């Protein structure tokens, strides 16, 4: 296949991104939430440095760990999800069976239990550091959800696309990589973004295995200063800001790949 | 509308009866983080037991109170008493000036200290010897605060002290600091751990446990203090110490 033809196929549907209605105007919901949260923290720190400034000073390394766990887990989960998704639609019975079993088992066990299990049970065999086992546990869990998202995305692409590609002389692999997946990504991206946000928030569960993430740093501060309400207010606002930040990135990515809606 | 009014009246009447029934003796709910043997823990019958529980029951009896125990996670146990979810806490709570500024305490009822537990192969005998290593403690406990004071040692905090011992058994941390009675239970009396761990040195702090109540609840403090005094006079606490193998 010529590069020209390849390019054309990839570019199918590409056009100028059309802003969604909700993104128009000065006061969008996102801006109000994002700058509102930042403003609230700034106001609290300014009006009552003790305890709010002290809390802000105490948690940055926790934020770093939360980022580390979230980003590590999401990258790993996307890889696992892609493999699982392809496995779920595979005609190879073994590959399909393994992927399906993985999804069924993991989806049926609470994340907290999985984190606990991977850390303490596997810990007796191989000594994995806490942050790494947190990343693995989160990725294993979200990989299963991601697999279903990928499967649904691929299955949503009309059969005719595949038939057309095959009739152009592409083989199965080329069809998947150049025709099906690029289109599926557009379908997959919004739910993946959703999973990403959910994963970010669920990363707070890793504090059970003594990973010093944002929530645990907050709890450590609160339990020593007895300022529970103030600390959890700040922690909630920081989670909100991070989540909104990522949702913006995902929103931009979605617009980049979106077909005219 | 009329039906609603009737219903409200019936409910109000019912509430009066219920509160009247509970008027005497005064019923209080006491929170305890039952993960701290032998002071407070859950036994095979899913009942909260331990020295603190027996002690509190005896105190309540002497003070003319009816007591119900509530198993509560340590993290946030103080916030709960502040929010009025329960009336008091008996959970191996060390009386510290910081805590006294926020809550009211009864008179001390047990003297204890913090102590270090390490794996058998460890040579060090105090926290400072574990420089560059990780030492675990339960979040928000005086043990955690002691580890934090030592420069060069990384504190890892756990939701329950048992998780810290489990992590040490897996070889991930080099020591655990907790109250002496609990350390003895985990290091010397638990089958799975007694071959792996040892207690090093003597307890290095002097602390006393007190029962916590909401700031300003002077009546309850006075009532509980009366109970504690009676229990100590009758030497019930000495018997309980023997029963739960406290020093």
UniProtKB/TrEMBL annotation, chain A:
<feature type="transmembrane region" description="Helical">
    <location>
        <begin position="226"/>
        <end position="246"/>
    </location>
</feature>
<feature type="domain" description="ABC transmembrane type-1">
    <location>
        <begin position="63"/>
        <end position="250"/>
    </location>
</feature>
<feature type="transmembrane region" description="Helical">
    <location>
        <begin position="28"/>
        <end position="46"/>
    </location>
</feature>
<keyword id="KW-0472">Membrane</keyword>
<feature type="transmembrane region" description="Helical">
    <location>
        <begin position="101"/>
        <end position="122"/>
    </location>
</feature>
<dbReference type="InterPro" id="IPR010065">
    <property type="entry name" value="AA_ABC_transptr_permease_3TM"/>
</dbReference>
<keyword id="KW-1003">Cell membrane</keyword>
<keyword id="KW-0812">Transmembrane</keyword>
<dbReference type="InterPro" id="IPR043429">
    <property type="entry name" value="ArtM/GltK/GlnP/TcyL/YhdX-like"/>
</dbReference>
<feature type="transmembrane region" description="Helical">
    <location>
        <begin position="66"/>
        <end position="89"/>
    </location>
</feature>
<comment type="function">
    <text>Part of the binding-protein-dependent transport system for glutamine; probably responsible for the translocation of the substrate across the membrane.</text>
</comment>
<comment type="similarity">
    <text>Belongs to the binding-protein-dependent transport system permease family. HisMQ subfamily.</text>
</comment>
<feature type="transmembrane region" description="Helical">
    <location>
        <begin position="128"/>
        <end position="145"/>
    </location>
</feature>
<dbReference type="InterPro" id="IPR000515">
    <property type="entry name" value="MetI-like"/>
</dbReference>
<protein>
    <submittedName>
        <fullName>Amino acid ABC transporter permease</fullName>
    </submittedName>
</protein>
<keyword id="KW-1133">Transmembrane helix</keyword>
<keyword id="KW-0813">Transport</keyword>
<dbReference type="Pfam" id="PF00528">
    <property type="entry name" value="BPD_transp_1"/>
</dbReference>
<keyword id="KW-0029">Amino-acid transport</keyword>
From TrEMBL, chain B:
<protein>
    <submittedName>
        <fullName>Basic amino acid ABC transporter substrate-binding protein</fullName>
    </submittedName>
</protein>
<feature type="domain" description="Ionotropic glutamate receptor C-terminal">
    <location>
        <begin position="27"/>
        <end position="247"/>
    </location>
</feature>
<keyword id="KW-0732">Signal</keyword>
<comment type="similarity">
    <text>Belongs to the bacterial solute-binding protein 3 family.</text>
</comment>
<feature type="signal peptide">
    <location>
        <begin position="1"/>
        <end position="23"/>
    </location>
</feature>
<feature type="domain" description="Solute-binding protein family 3/N-terminal">
    <location>
        <begin position="27"/>
        <end position="247"/>
    </location>
</feature>
<dbReference type="Pfam" id="PF00497">
    <property type="entry name" value="SBP_bac_3"/>
</dbReference>
<dbReference type="InterPro" id="IPR001638">
    <property type="entry name" value="Solute-binding_3/MltF_N"/>
</dbReference>
<dbReference type="InterPro" id="IPR018313">
    <property type="entry name" value="SBP_3_CS"/>
</dbReference>
<dbReference type="InterPro" id="IPR001320">
    <property type="entry name" value="Iontro_rcpt_C"/>
</dbReference>
């Amino acid at each position: 296949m010529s590069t020209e033809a390849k390019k054309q196929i990839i570019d199918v549907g590409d056009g100028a991104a059309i802003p969604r209605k909700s993104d128009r105007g000065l006061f969008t919901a996102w801006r109000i939430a994002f700058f509102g949260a930042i403003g609230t923290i700034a106001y609290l720190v300014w009006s009552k440095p003790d305890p709010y400034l002290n809390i802000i000073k105490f948690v940055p390394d926790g934020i770093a760990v939360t980022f580390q766990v979230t980003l590590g887990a999401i990258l790993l989960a996307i890889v696992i999800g892609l493999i699982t998704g392809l496995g779920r639609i595979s005609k190879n019975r073994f590959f399909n069976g393994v992927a399906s079993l993985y999804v069924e088992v993991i989806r049926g066990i609470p994340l907290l239990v999985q984190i606990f299990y991977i850390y303490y049970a596997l810990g007796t065999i191989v000594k994995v550091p806490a942050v790494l086992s947190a990343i693995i546990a989160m990725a294993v869990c979200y990989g299963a959800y991601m697999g279903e998202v990928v499967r649904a995305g691929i299955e949503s692409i009309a059969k005719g696309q595949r038939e057309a590609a095959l009739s152009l002389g592409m083989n199965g692999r080329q069809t998947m990589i150049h025709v099906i997946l690029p289109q599926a990504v557009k379908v997959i991206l919004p739910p993946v973004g959703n999973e990403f946000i959910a994963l970010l928030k669920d990363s707070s569960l890793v504090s059970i295995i003594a990973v010093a993430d944002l929530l645990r740093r907050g709890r450590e501060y609160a339990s020593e200063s007895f300022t529970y309400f103030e600390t959890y207010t700040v922690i909630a606002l920081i989670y909100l800001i991070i989540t909104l930040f990522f949702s913006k990135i995902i929103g931009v990515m979605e617009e980049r790949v979106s077909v005219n809606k | 509308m009329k039906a609603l009014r009737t219903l409200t009246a019936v409910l109000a009447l019912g509430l009066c009866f219920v509160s009247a029934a509970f008027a005497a003796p005064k019923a209080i709910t006491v929170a305890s983080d039952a993960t701290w043997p032998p002071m407070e823990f859950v036994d095979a019958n899913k009942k909260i037991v331990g020295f603190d529980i027996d002690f509190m029951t005896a105190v309540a009896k002497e003070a003319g109170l009816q007591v119900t125990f509530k198993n509560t996670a340590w993290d946030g146990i103080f916030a709960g008493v502040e929010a009025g979810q329960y009336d008091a806490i008996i959970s191996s709570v060390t009386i510290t000036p910081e805590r006294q500024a926020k809550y009211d305490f009864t008179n001390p009822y047990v003297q204890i200290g913090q102590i270090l537990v390490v794996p058998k192969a460890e040579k060090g005998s105090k926290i400072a010897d574990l420089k560059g290593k990780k030492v675990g403690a339960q979040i928000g406990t005086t043990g955690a605060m002691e580890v934090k004071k030592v420069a060069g040692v990384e504190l890892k905090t756990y939701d329950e002290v048992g998780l810290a011992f489990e992590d040490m058994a897996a070889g991930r941390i080099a020591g655990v600091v907790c109250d002496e009675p609990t350390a003895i239970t985990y290091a010397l009396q638990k089958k799975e751990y007694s071959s792996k761990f040892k207690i090093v040195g003597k307890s290095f702090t002097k602390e006393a446990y007190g029962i916590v109540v909401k700031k300003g609840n002077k009546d309850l403090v006075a009532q509980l203090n009366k109970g504690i005094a009676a229990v100590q006079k009758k030497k019930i606490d000495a018997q309980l110490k023997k029963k739960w193998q406290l020093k």
